[in-house]
Amino acid sequence: MNRIPSSPRVAVVGATGAVGREMFSILEQREFPAASVTAFASARSAGKTIPFRGELLTVEELTAESLNDFDLALFSAGGGTSKRFAPIAAKAGCVVVDNSSAFRMDDDVPLVVPEVNPEALDGHSNIIANPNCSTIQMVVALAPLNKVSRIERIIVSTYQAVSGTGQAAIDELMSQAYTIQAGDDVTPQVYPKQIAYNVLPHIDDFLDSGFTKEEMKMVNETRKILNDQSIAVNATTVRVPVVRGHSESVYIETQTRIGAAKAREVLSASDGIRLVDEPETGGYPVPLDCAGQDDTLVGRVRDDLDAETGLSLWVVADNLRKGAALNAVQIAELLLDR
Protein backbone atom coordinates (compact mmCIF):
# COMPACT_ATOMS: atom_id res chain seq x y z
CA MET A 1 0.00 0.00 0.00
CA ASN A 2 1.45 3.34 -1.07
CA ARG A 3 0.73 6.40 1.04
CA ILE A 4 0.10 9.50 -1.03
CA PRO A 5 1.71 12.80 0.08
CA SER A 6 -0.27 15.73 1.43
CA SER A 7 0.13 17.58 -1.89
CA PRO A 8 -0.03 14.79 -4.46
CA ARG A 9 0.70 14.90 -8.15
CA VAL A 10 -2.67 13.99 -9.68
CA ALA A 11 -3.54 12.48 -13.06
CA VAL A 12 -7.09 12.43 -14.43
CA VAL A 13 -7.47 9.64 -16.99
CA GLY A 14 -10.43 9.97 -19.34
CA ALA A 15 -10.27 13.73 -18.94
CA THR A 16 -12.50 14.66 -21.88
CA GLY A 17 -15.47 12.47 -20.95
CA ALA A 18 -18.48 13.67 -18.97
CA VAL A 19 -17.20 12.20 -15.69
CA GLY A 20 -13.62 13.30 -16.33
CA ARG A 21 -14.68 16.90 -16.84
CA GLU A 22 -16.77 16.67 -13.69
CA MET A 23 -13.68 15.48 -11.79
CA PHE A 24 -11.80 18.64 -12.71
CA SER A 25 -14.75 20.76 -11.60
CA ILE A 26 -14.96 18.98 -8.23
CA LEU A 27 -11.21 19.05 -7.61
CA GLU A 28 -11.37 22.81 -8.10
CA GLN A 29 -14.55 23.38 -6.08
CA ARG A 30 -13.31 21.34 -3.12
CA GLU A 31 -9.83 22.91 -3.31
CA PHE A 32 -8.15 19.53 -3.42
CA PRO A 33 -4.52 20.16 -2.37
CA ALA A 34 -2.85 18.82 -5.50
CA ALA A 35 0.71 19.86 -6.30
CA SER A 36 -0.22 19.43 -9.96
CA VAL A 37 -3.09 18.06 -12.04
CA THR A 38 -2.53 16.55 -15.50
CA ALA A 39 -5.16 15.51 -18.03
CA PHE A 40 -4.86 12.24 -19.98
CA ALA A 41 -7.07 10.66 -22.62
CA SER A 42 -6.82 8.60 -25.79
CA ALA A 43 -4.77 9.68 -28.80
CA ARG A 44 -7.84 11.09 -30.55
CA SER A 45 -8.49 13.49 -27.65
CA ALA A 46 -4.87 14.55 -27.14
CA GLY A 47 -4.40 18.26 -27.70
CA LYS A 48 -7.85 19.24 -26.47
CA THR A 49 -8.02 21.62 -23.51
CA ILE A 50 -9.73 21.39 -20.11
CA PRO A 51 -10.42 24.50 -17.98
CA PHE A 52 -8.99 24.17 -14.47
CA ARG A 53 -8.16 26.78 -11.83
CA GLY A 54 -8.24 29.65 -14.28
CA GLU A 55 -6.03 27.90 -16.84
CA LEU A 56 -6.45 25.60 -19.81
CA LEU A 57 -4.84 22.18 -19.38
CA THR A 58 -3.74 20.46 -22.58
CA VAL A 59 -4.83 16.83 -22.72
CA GLU A 60 -1.99 14.35 -23.15
CA GLU A 61 -2.14 10.90 -24.70
CA LEU A 62 -2.13 8.09 -22.12
CA THR A 63 0.75 5.64 -22.57
CA ALA A 64 2.27 2.90 -20.45
CA GLU A 65 4.85 5.36 -19.09
CA SER A 66 2.49 8.29 -18.50
CA LEU A 67 1.73 7.64 -14.83
CA ASN A 68 5.21 6.78 -13.56
CA ASP A 69 5.67 10.11 -11.79
CA PHE A 70 2.21 10.54 -10.24
CA ASP A 71 1.02 9.89 -6.71
CA LEU A 72 -2.71 9.60 -7.49
CA ALA A 73 -4.68 8.79 -10.65
CA LEU A 74 -8.43 9.20 -11.05
CA PHE A 75 -9.57 6.89 -13.86
CA SER A 76 -12.79 7.32 -15.82
CA ALA A 77 -11.95 5.95 -19.24
CA GLY A 78 -13.73 2.60 -19.41
CA GLY A 79 -12.92 -0.89 -18.26
CA GLY A 80 -10.52 -1.73 -21.07
CA THR A 81 -8.32 1.27 -20.36
CA SER A 82 -8.42 0.56 -16.63
CA LYS A 83 -7.45 -3.09 -17.04
CA ARG A 84 -4.53 -2.12 -19.25
CA PHE A 85 -3.10 0.91 -17.46
CA ALA A 86 -4.22 0.81 -13.80
CA PRO A 87 -2.01 -2.18 -12.82
CA ILE A 88 0.99 -0.49 -14.48
CA ALA A 89 0.36 2.70 -12.53
CA ALA A 90 -0.19 0.81 -9.27
CA LYS A 91 3.05 -1.13 -9.72
CA ALA A 92 4.88 2.19 -10.20
CA GLY A 93 3.56 3.41 -6.84
CA CYS A 94 0.63 5.49 -8.05
CA VAL A 95 -2.66 5.01 -6.18
CA VAL A 96 -5.50 4.50 -8.66
CA VAL A 97 -9.14 5.32 -7.96
CA ASP A 98 -10.99 3.59 -10.80
CA ASN A 99 -14.50 4.47 -11.90
CA SER A 100 -15.00 1.46 -14.19
CA SER A 101 -16.29 -2.00 -13.28
CA ALA A 102 -12.90 -3.60 -14.05
CA PHE A 103 -11.82 -4.29 -10.46
CA ARG A 104 -14.95 -3.83 -8.36
CA MET A 105 -15.46 -7.45 -7.50
CA ASP A 106 -11.80 -8.36 -7.03
CA ASP A 107 -11.30 -9.63 -3.49
CA ASP A 108 -8.17 -7.56 -2.94
CA VAL A 109 -9.63 -4.29 -4.30
CA PRO A 110 -11.67 -2.12 -1.91
CA LEU A 111 -15.06 -0.97 -3.23
CA VAL A 112 -15.63 2.26 -1.36
CA VAL A 113 -18.36 4.78 -0.62
CA PRO A 114 -16.79 7.16 1.93
CA GLU A 115 -19.97 7.71 3.94
CA VAL A 116 -20.53 3.95 4.19
CA ASN A 117 -17.30 1.91 4.41
CA PRO A 118 -14.18 4.11 4.66
CA GLU A 119 -12.46 1.36 6.67
CA ALA A 120 -12.31 -0.72 3.47
CA LEU A 121 -9.39 1.44 2.35
CA ASP A 122 -7.11 -0.13 4.95
CA GLY A 123 -4.48 -2.30 3.32
CA HIS A 124 -5.35 -1.47 -0.29
CA SER A 125 -2.92 -2.54 -3.03
CA ASN A 126 -2.86 0.82 -4.86
CA ILE A 127 -6.11 0.18 -6.76
CA ILE A 128 -9.43 1.31 -5.28
CA ALA A 129 -12.74 0.84 -7.07
CA ASN A 130 -15.52 3.39 -7.34
CA PRO A 131 -18.91 1.60 -7.30
CA ASN A 132 -21.61 1.80 -9.94
CA CYS A 133 -23.53 5.08 -9.93
CA SER A 134 -26.88 3.50 -9.06
CA THR A 135 -25.32 1.44 -6.28
CA ILE A 136 -23.62 4.44 -4.67
CA GLN A 137 -26.74 6.50 -4.06
CA MET A 138 -28.70 3.50 -2.82
CA VAL A 139 -26.13 2.41 -0.24
CA VAL A 140 -25.67 6.00 0.96
CA ALA A 141 -29.39 6.00 1.79
CA LEU A 142 -29.55 2.47 3.18
CA ALA A 143 -26.36 2.21 5.25
CA PRO A 144 -27.67 4.39 8.14
CA LEU A 145 -30.84 2.31 8.30
CA ASN A 146 -28.81 -0.90 8.18
CA LYS A 147 -27.05 0.24 11.37
CA VAL A 148 -30.42 0.56 13.13
CA SER A 149 -31.66 -2.84 11.99
CA ARG A 150 -29.98 -5.22 9.58
CA ILE A 151 -31.47 -5.09 6.09
CA GLU A 152 -32.55 -8.54 4.95
CA ARG A 153 -34.11 -7.73 1.57
CA ILE A 154 -33.87 -4.95 -1.03
CA ILE A 155 -36.10 -4.51 -4.07
CA VAL A 156 -35.04 -1.59 -6.25
CA SER A 157 -36.21 -0.14 -9.55
CA THR A 158 -34.04 2.57 -11.08
CA TYR A 159 -34.83 5.46 -13.41
CA GLN A 160 -31.42 6.29 -14.83
CA ALA A 161 -30.44 9.37 -16.82
CA VAL A 162 -28.84 9.12 -20.25
CA SER A 163 -25.68 10.90 -19.07
CA GLY A 164 -24.78 7.61 -17.42
CA THR A 165 -24.04 6.34 -20.92
CA GLY A 166 -22.03 9.39 -21.95
CA GLN A 167 -22.20 12.48 -24.14
CA ALA A 168 -23.31 10.53 -27.22
CA ALA A 169 -26.44 9.42 -25.36
CA ILE A 170 -27.22 12.98 -24.27
CA ASP A 171 -26.87 14.10 -27.89
CA GLU A 172 -29.10 11.26 -29.06
CA LEU A 173 -31.87 12.17 -26.60
CA MET A 174 -31.80 15.82 -27.67
CA SER A 175 -31.66 15.07 -31.40
CA GLN A 176 -34.48 12.54 -31.17
CA ALA A 177 -36.70 15.03 -29.34
CA TYR A 178 -36.14 17.66 -32.04
CA THR A 179 -36.62 15.11 -34.83
CA ILE A 180 -39.89 13.82 -33.40
CA GLN A 181 -41.23 17.33 -32.90
CA ALA A 182 -40.43 18.02 -36.54
CA GLY A 183 -42.57 15.04 -37.48
CA ASP A 184 -39.73 12.86 -38.72
CA ASP A 185 -38.77 9.30 -37.80
CA VAL A 186 -35.78 8.59 -35.58
CA THR A 187 -33.09 5.95 -36.00
CA PRO A 188 -31.57 4.94 -32.64
CA GLN A 189 -27.78 4.74 -32.57
CA VAL A 190 -26.69 4.64 -28.92
CA TYR A 191 -29.65 2.74 -27.47
CA PRO A 192 -31.46 -0.24 -29.03
CA LYS A 193 -34.76 1.64 -29.05
CA GLN A 194 -35.90 5.27 -29.16
CA ILE A 195 -35.12 6.98 -25.83
CA ALA A 196 -36.97 10.27 -26.37
CA TYR A 197 -40.49 10.11 -24.87
CA ASN A 198 -39.81 6.51 -23.87
CA VAL A 199 -38.35 4.31 -21.12
CA LEU A 200 -36.10 1.30 -21.68
CA PRO A 201 -35.93 -1.52 -19.08
CA HIS A 202 -32.54 -2.40 -20.49
CA ILE A 203 -29.17 -1.16 -19.21
CA ASP A 204 -26.08 -3.14 -20.28
CA ASP A 205 -26.24 -6.69 -21.64
CA PHE A 206 -28.80 -9.32 -20.69
CA LEU A 207 -27.56 -12.43 -18.91
CA ASP A 208 -28.91 -15.99 -19.04
CA SER A 209 -30.77 -15.31 -15.79
CA GLY A 210 -32.87 -12.64 -17.49
CA PHE A 211 -31.21 -9.91 -15.43
CA THR A 212 -28.83 -7.38 -16.98
CA LYS A 213 -25.22 -6.76 -16.03
CA GLU A 214 -26.27 -3.41 -14.55
CA GLU A 215 -28.80 -5.12 -12.31
CA MET A 216 -26.25 -7.66 -11.13
CA LYS A 217 -23.79 -4.85 -10.39
CA MET A 218 -26.32 -3.49 -7.91
CA VAL A 219 -26.76 -6.94 -6.37
CA ASN A 220 -23.09 -7.83 -6.01
CA GLU A 221 -21.72 -4.38 -5.20
CA THR A 222 -24.32 -3.74 -2.49
CA ARG A 223 -23.40 -6.96 -0.75
CA LYS A 224 -19.69 -6.15 -0.92
CA ILE A 225 -20.02 -2.56 0.29
CA LEU A 226 -22.35 -3.46 3.17
CA ASN A 227 -20.18 -6.53 3.90
CA ASP A 228 -23.16 -8.87 3.96
CA GLN A 229 -23.44 -11.58 1.32
CA SER A 230 -26.78 -12.74 2.74
CA ILE A 231 -28.76 -9.62 1.77
CA ALA A 232 -31.40 -10.50 -0.82
CA VAL A 233 -31.25 -7.90 -3.60
CA ASN A 234 -33.56 -7.74 -6.61
CA ALA A 235 -32.95 -4.93 -9.11
CA THR A 236 -34.67 -3.69 -12.25
CA THR A 237 -32.69 -0.95 -13.99
CA VAL A 238 -34.43 1.38 -16.43
CA ARG A 239 -33.15 4.15 -18.72
CA VAL A 240 -35.38 7.23 -18.86
CA PRO A 241 -35.31 10.39 -21.03
CA VAL A 242 -33.64 12.53 -18.35
CA VAL A 243 -30.28 14.17 -18.99
CA ARG A 244 -28.82 14.16 -15.49
CA GLY A 245 -29.79 12.57 -12.18
CA HIS A 246 -30.71 8.97 -11.35
CA SER A 247 -33.85 8.14 -9.37
CA GLU A 248 -34.61 4.94 -7.50
CA SER A 249 -37.65 3.38 -5.89
CA VAL A 250 -36.22 1.32 -3.03
CA TYR A 251 -38.08 -1.14 -0.83
CA ILE A 252 -36.38 -2.82 2.12
CA GLU A 253 -37.28 -5.33 4.78
CA THR A 254 -35.28 -5.21 7.99
CA GLN A 255 -34.67 -7.69 10.78
CA THR A 256 -36.70 -5.61 13.21
CA ARG A 257 -39.12 -2.77 12.55
CA ILE A 258 -37.61 0.69 12.08
CA GLY A 259 -40.73 2.62 11.09
CA ALA A 260 -40.99 5.64 8.81
CA ALA A 261 -40.73 8.23 11.59
CA LYS A 262 -37.50 6.75 12.95
CA ALA A 263 -36.15 6.29 9.43
CA ARG A 264 -36.68 10.00 8.66
CA GLU A 265 -34.90 10.92 11.90
CA VAL A 266 -31.93 8.70 11.07
CA LEU A 267 -31.68 9.82 7.46
CA SER A 268 -31.86 13.52 8.26
CA ALA A 269 -28.90 13.14 10.65
CA SER A 270 -26.71 11.16 8.23
CA ASP A 271 -23.74 12.45 6.24
CA GLY A 272 -24.28 12.93 2.52
CA ILE A 273 -28.08 12.76 2.74
CA ARG A 274 -30.66 15.52 2.43
CA LEU A 275 -34.16 14.48 3.48
CA VAL A 276 -36.84 16.00 1.25
CA ASP A 277 -40.05 14.45 2.51
CA GLU A 278 -43.06 16.76 2.57
CA PRO A 279 -45.09 15.28 -0.29
CA GLU A 280 -48.27 17.22 0.43
CA THR A 281 -46.50 20.47 -0.56
CA GLY A 282 -44.39 19.10 -3.38
CA GLY A 283 -41.58 18.21 -1.04
CA TYR A 284 -40.09 15.19 -2.75
CA PRO A 285 -36.83 14.98 -4.72
CA VAL A 286 -36.67 14.95 -8.51
CA PRO A 287 -33.65 14.80 -10.84
CA LEU A 288 -33.72 18.54 -11.54
CA ASP A 289 -33.25 19.14 -7.80
CA CYS A 290 -30.08 17.07 -7.59
CA ALA A 291 -28.20 18.30 -10.65
CA GLY A 292 -24.92 19.80 -9.49
CA GLN A 293 -25.59 18.79 -5.88
CA ASP A 294 -23.33 16.64 -3.70
CA ASP A 295 -26.01 15.17 -1.43
CA THR A 296 -28.14 12.14 -2.05
CA LEU A 297 -31.77 13.24 -1.77
CA VAL A 298 -34.27 10.95 -0.04
CA GLY A 299 -38.05 11.28 0.21
CA ARG A 300 -41.36 9.39 0.06
CA VAL A 301 -40.33 7.50 3.21
CA ARG A 302 -43.25 5.28 4.19
CA ASP A 303 -44.11 2.07 5.98
CA ASP A 304 -45.23 -0.97 4.05
CA LEU A 305 -48.99 -1.49 4.32
CA ASP A 306 -48.66 -5.20 5.06
CA ALA A 307 -45.13 -6.23 6.04
CA GLU A 308 -44.29 -5.02 9.54
CA THR A 309 -40.60 -4.52 8.78
CA GLY A 310 -41.08 -3.14 5.25
CA LEU A 311 -40.04 0.41 4.34
CA SER A 312 -40.13 2.31 1.03
CA LEU A 313 -37.93 5.22 -0.05
CA TRP A 314 -37.39 7.40 -3.12
CA VAL A 315 -33.70 8.16 -3.70
CA VAL A 316 -32.30 10.72 -6.16
CA ALA A 317 -28.70 11.78 -6.86
CA ASP A 318 -26.54 13.41 -9.50
CA ASN A 319 -25.04 10.41 -11.29
CA LEU A 320 -22.07 12.38 -12.61
CA ARG A 321 -21.20 13.79 -9.18
CA LYS A 322 -22.01 11.48 -6.28
CA GLY A 323 -22.52 8.61 -8.68
CA ALA A 324 -19.02 8.98 -10.12
CA ALA A 325 -16.67 11.98 -9.94
CA LEU A 326 -17.48 13.24 -6.45
CA ASN A 327 -17.25 9.79 -4.89
CA ALA A 328 -13.82 9.32 -6.50
CA VAL A 329 -12.55 12.67 -5.18
CA GLN A 330 -13.98 11.89 -1.72
CA ILE A 331 -12.01 8.64 -1.76
CA ALA A 332 -8.89 10.64 -2.63
CA GLU A 333 -9.59 12.98 0.28
CA LEU A 334 -9.92 9.99 2.59
CA LEU A 335 -6.57 8.71 1.38
CA LEU A 336 -5.00 12.03 2.34
CA ASP A 337 -6.66 11.98 5.77
CA ARG A 338 -5.61 8.39 6.48
What topology emerges from the helices and strands here?
Blueprint: E1 9-13, H1 18-29, E2 36-41, E3 49-52, E4 55-58, E5 60-61, E6 72-75, H2 79-91, E7 95-98, E8 127-129, H3 133-148, E9 151-159, H4 167-181, H5 213-225, E10 232-236, E11 246-254, H6 260-268, E12 273-275, H7 287-290, E13 296-303, E14 310-317, H8 321-337
Parallel strand pairs: 1-2, 1-6, 2-5, 6-7, 7-8, 9-10, 12-13
Antiparallel strand pairs: 3-4, 9-11, 11-14, 13-14
Helix pairs in contact: 1-8, 3-5, 3-8
Count the domains.
2
| Poorly predicted regions | none
Structural class: alpha/beta
Averaged pLDDT, please? 96
Global shape: globular
Strand order of the largest sheet: 5-2-1-6-7-8
Gyration radius (Cα, Å) is 20 Å
According to CATH, the homologous superfamily of the largest domain is: Dihydrodipicolinate Reductase, domain 2
Q: Describe the main β-sheet briefly.
A: 6 strands, parallel
The share of residues in extended strands comes to 15-25%
What order do the helices and strands follow?
EHEEEEEHEEHEHHEEHEHEEH
CA(first)-CA(last) distance? 12 Å
Query: How many individual β-strands?
Result: 14
If classified by CATH, what would the architecture of the largest domain be?
2-Layer Sandwich
CATH topology of the largest domain: Dihydrodipicolinate Reductase, domain 2
CATH class of the largest domain: Alpha Beta
Task: Explain the overall architecture.
There is one protein chain. The chain has 338 residues and is α/β, with parallel strands linked by helices. A six-stranded parallel beta sheet has the order 5-2-1-6-7-8, sandwiched between helices. A six-stranded mixed beta sheet has the order 10-9-11-14-13-12. Strands 3-4 form a two-stranded antiparallel sheet. The chain has helices at residues 18-29, 79-91, 133-148, 167-181, 213-225, 260-268, 287-290, 321-337; strands at residues 9-13, 36-41, 49-52, 55-58, 60-61, 72-75, 95-98, 127-129, 151-159, 232-236, 246-254, 273-275, 296-303, 310-317. Strand 12 (273-275), helix 7 (287-290) and strand 13 form a beta-alpha-beta unit. Helix 1 packs across helix 8, helix 3 runs parallel beside helix 5 (213-225) and helix 3 packs across helix 8. It has two domains: 9-130 and 324-337, 3-Layer(aba) Sandwich (Rossmann fold), CATH 3.40.50; 135-319, Dihydrodipicolinate Reductase, domain 2 (2-Layer Sandwich). Helices cover 29% and strands 22% of the residues. It contains eight helices and 14 strands. The chain is globular. The N and C termini lie close together (12 Å).
